[in-house]
Design brief:
Structural class of chain B: alpha/beta
Radius of gyration of chain A: 21 Å
Oligomer: heterodimer
Number of helices of chain A: 10
Strand order of the largest sheet of chain B: 7-6-5-2-4-3-16-9
Helix content of chain B: 25-40%
Largest interface: A-B, 54 and 71 residues
CATH architecture of the largest domain in chain B: 3-Layer(aba) Sandwich
Radius of gyration of chain B: 26 Å
Strand content of chain A: 15-25%
Number of domains of chain B: 4
CATH topology of the largest domain in chain B: Pyruvate-ferredoxin Oxidoreductase, domain 3
Helix content of chain A: 25-40%
Shape of chain A: globular
CATH architecture of chain A: 3-Layer(aba) Sandwich
Number of strands of chain A: 8
Shape of chain B: globular
Largest sheet of chain B: 8 strands, mixed
Chain lengths: 281, 581
């Protein structure tokens, strides 16, 4: 190889991971902070854009792949995790990051979330949680508080307690579980970095306020507090969640186990396989 | 069956009994042993939905010549018991020439059997099992039938040995003793009904099911990823791929549902790995949204739909051709796609392989419409032909600058950049988009991409394999998929009676080759369309695409009873056709 080429090392800053697309997000949306932290994390990890794939479903936050310069797949509503699993399993050398919102991930895609946790494919799942469907103009999501009456679809509230995504992830045996806040850029980038580097399914719930339909979430910055200390003890993690007010940040649980590998067998050629169909007498 | 001699070159038989009694194993043993003796053969399965204890029938046809479908009647019926056997009254047709062998201790002979005029011989299978420790009634029946129809005892024994290979010496010993019990029971029978001499085999025949064949076709075409969710009657495709993909360096994931399985396939294919899933109607319904995504984002994927009775849960264990509508049209928006249908068990290999090739070449979804009749039938056949169809996707690999994923090319196919290719980074999307993949709600961009995606299907040269057109005649029988099997036999029967008939079986249902089909029907005076659906979906589809002759007739019947050659012969006769000299 040409030594000049060999010596040409690409040093990419976080801006190199941002595309020239103007996000559809409202000014002040928490997702901008997520995009910033993510591009910082990718730069810090010295990832090559061509070897990263961001996979998303539908919703405001699911638009994020196109705002980066890596490969992306903006699929249908709720199916980011299976798309990402198919890619990550068939191309294990890639860095695969699934993203989306609380409606996409915990409502229409809820079943995939449970099974992604236990399947433990080597990928990252970043959920920008604002407890509202923003793209459809403000309906309650699975993480919306019971008494929120801000939606014309549930004018008297949801009549249901909100889901607790971290509890779900822990129960479904995700090996890496964390929570971060879009307005705490350094902690968010650090947790994202750790999640991407983690060998296995790494889930991060990112509290990301919706300025338009949940303006009261601007108050989250006063409520958010660090507090989780990474443990590999499920009981300790459940205990921490029992005390959690929904605003504790940090890595809650970190218990590496071998990531998902499909069956492998001794290679044979197709002619050998076909011979097995021959009639034996 | 030739009724004037003791032997026949074509023999139809069925074994019935409760689910769990082992009639399917017995049927497969007989088929495999007959194949080992050099015969062609076919076994189809008829079962109720129960896991165990329901009614079950293994229906076999053995012959010195290739057989593709069951005959209209049975030469021989063996009943291990009569549990719910009345459900087979419409399917297992007996007459005065038929022989029925039944265990007198296992229920009363059903009325349809008694009234058929068939000769009844009693063999106490269950009582015979007491004579040898560990012997089972189904094995005794295999020994009896093998002897009765003239299979080589050594072939039957070797086949039983193979099937029980991993079950231990004791069980094999008991089974061989059971076979012997069955063979000696035959000496009490007044007449033998044997198969004629063995045909020569130029090359070894294959024993294969339609579902295994679809799996083989997929890997021949280059599929190396499958995500699977079990569903009757397609599960065997997924199980075959689970066993064989890893041997070829491929991967399989059992998904949590069909929404996941199809999307996992799209994820793998986005990464460049040819991907397939298999399902049946209910699962296919769940996949429809993702098929629209595959169309819009131009991601190749193959879905084999092994059709069963519908709608909804329908009849899971029985065949129907009623998913044609959803396969061709099932999507919101204008979403053209490939729809193909194999028309024999061997063709499940070839057509699935072709589907992989086409999906990859055209960067779009391909649906393969198999059905329970093909998928769960096991046959001794001549090996399917080797063909060159391979996954060969047009990729963007060179130094990429200003890469446009959805470039509006002449043939409509745009080079695809795979993750790992520097300069090709783009975001695949289900949103309407520009050539660059940037989302766009502009009417111009929308129209341009719709045009492009239609053009790539319209301009592709599919060659002659879009249909099998056989023979000439002013009378045309037009069909698709598994009903081609009885249609071939019915047409052969009519031809042997002096009628000139053209048979057309359409393999590429979408896009339909309307030009050549219209030509093929140019001299048609009478048209008979044959399909296994209640609503005449195939007929309606054809009507929507071409002008059909004025004198067009339709034989459309839902499952679960398969259309047989006799049904088609009757339909042709009812056309009141003139005999061609």
């Amino acid at each position: 190889m040409n030594s000049a080429v060999e010596q040409q090392i690409r040093i990419l800053g976080h801006k190199d991971f941002k595309s020239d697309y103007k996000p559809v997000w409202c000014a002040g949306c928490g997702d901008f902070g997520v995009l910033n932290a993510l591009t910082k994390a990718m730069a810090a990890l010295e990832l090559e854009p061509e070897n990263v794939a961001m996979i998303a479903g539908i919703g405001c936050s699911s638009r994020i792949p196109a705002y980066t310069t890596v490969y992306g797949f903006h699929g249908v509503h709720g199916r980011a995790l299976p798309l990402a699993a198919g890619l990550a399993v068939s191309r294990p050398e890639l860095t695969v990051i699934a993203t989306g919102g609380d409606g996409d991930g915990f409502s229409i895609g809820g079943n995939h979330f449970l099974h992604a946790c236990r399947r433990n494919v080597n990928m990252t799942y970043l959920v920008m949680d604002n407890s509202v469907y923003g793209m459809t103009k403000g309906q309650a999501s699975p993480t919306t508080e019971r008494d929120w009456t801000g939606s014309r679809l549930s004018p008297q509230g949801t009549h249901q307690p909100p889901l607790q995504p971290l509890e779900l992830a822990l129960a479904a045996r995700a090996p890496f579980i964390a929570r971060a806040f879009s307005n705490s850029p350094n902690e968010l980038a650090r947790i994202m970095t750790e999640a991407i580097e983690f060998d296995g399914f790494a889930f991060v719930q990112i509290l990301s306020p919706c300025i338009t339909f949940r303006p009261e979430q601007l108050g989250w910055k006063k409520r958010v507090h660090e507090g989780f200390e990474a443990t590999n003890d499920r009981a300790a993690a459940f205990a921490a969640l029992a005390e959690d007010d929904g605003f504790t940040t940090g890595v809650l649980y970190r218990a590496p186990r071998p990531h998902f590998q499909p069956d492998q067998r001794e290679p044979v050629d197709i002619e050998t396989i076909e011979k097995r169909f021959e009639v034996r007498s | 069956m030739n009724k004037t001699s003791d032997t026949t070159k074509d023999l139809s038989l069925a074994l019935v009994g409760s689910g769990g009694a082992g009639v399917m194993t017995a049927g497969q043993t007989l088929l495999d042993a007959a194949a080992a003796s050099g015969y062609y053969g076919l076994m189809t399965r008829a079962t109720g939905p129960q896991i165990r204890g329901g009614e079950a029938a293994a229906i076999l046809r053995l012959s010195g010549e290739p057989v593709e479908c069951q005959d209209d009647r049975l030469d021989l019926l063996v009943a291990l018991d009569w549990n719910k056997a009345e459900r087979f009254a419409d399917e297992l047709i007996l007459d005065a020439e038929s022989l029925v062998i039944a265990d007198p201790g296992q229920g009363e002979v059903p009325a349809w059997v008694g009234e058929s005029g068939a000769r009844l011989v009693e063999v106490p299978f269950d009582a015979l099992t007491k004579e040898v420790r560990g012997a089972r009634a189904n094995t005794i029946a295999v020994g009896l039938v093998g002897q009765l129809i003239g299979l080589k005892g050594t072939d039957v024994e070797a086949t039983v040995g193979r099937i029980l290979e991993n079950k231990g010496a004791k069980l094999i010993e008991a089974a061989l003793a059971g076979l012997k019990l069955g063979r000696t029971a035959v000496d009490d029978l007044p007449q033998r009904q044997g198969l004629a001499g063995q045909p020569d085999q130029a090359e070894p025949r294959w024993l294969i099911t339609g579902n295994d064949a679809a799996g083989l076709g997929a890997v021949r075409g280059g599929v190396r990823f499958c995500a699977a969710y079990p569903i009757t009657p397609s599960t065997e495709i997924q199980e075959w791929l689970a066993a064989h993909l890893p041997e070829l360096g491929g991967k399989l994931i059992q998904a949590e549902d069909e929404l996941a399985s199809i999307n996992m396939c799209l994820g793998a294919s986005f990464g460049g790995t040819p991907a397939m899933t298999a399902t049946s109607g209910p699962g296919f319904s769940l996949m429809v949204e993702a098929l629209g995504l595959a169309t819009q984002a131009e991601i190749p994927v193959v879905v084999v739909d092994v059709m069963r009775g519908g709608p909804s849960t329908g009849i899971p264990t029985r065949s129907e051709q009623s998913d044609l509508d959803i396969a061709v049209h099932g999507a919101h928006g204008d979403a053209p796609r490939l729809v193909l249908a194999p028309n024999s068990i061997g063709d499940c290999v070839t057509t699935t392989q072709w589907a992989v090739h086409l999906a990859e070449a055209l960067q779009c979804p391909a649906v393969v419409l198999s059905d329970q009749r093909l998928g769960q039938a096991r046959a001794a056949i001549d090996p399917p032909p080797q063909c060159d169809w391979q996954a060969n996707r047009k990729l963007a690999t060179d130094e990429l600058e200003d890469y446009r994923r959805f470039a509006d090319t002449d043939d409509g196919v745009s080079p695809m950049a795979l993750p790992g290719t520097a300069g090709g980074e783009y975001t695949a999307t289900g949103l309407s988009h520009m050539e660059s993949a940037r989302p766009s709600a502009s009417g111009m961009d929308h129209q341009r991409q719709l045009d492009k995606r239609r053009r790539k299907l319209e301009q592709f040269h599919f060659g002659d394999d879009w249909a099998d057109i056989d023979g000439d005649g002013e009378l045309v029988v037009l069909t698709w998929g598994s009903t081609t099997l009885p249609a071939r036999e019915a047409v052969a029967r009519m031809r042997s009676r002096g009628h000139a008939i053209r048979l057309i079986s359409i393999r590429l249902l979408s896009p339909l080759n309307t030009e050549v089909l219209t030509e093929a029907l140019a001299s048609c005076r009478q048209l008979l369309i044959v399909e296994q659906s209640h609503g005449g979906q195939f007929h309606r589809y054809l009507r929507s695409r071409i002008e059909l002759p004025d004198d067009t007739h339709l034989l459309a019947r839902p499952g679960p009873l398969n259309i047989g050659p006799g049904d088609i012969v009757t339909a042709i006769e009812n056309l009141d056709l003139e005999k061609v000299a």
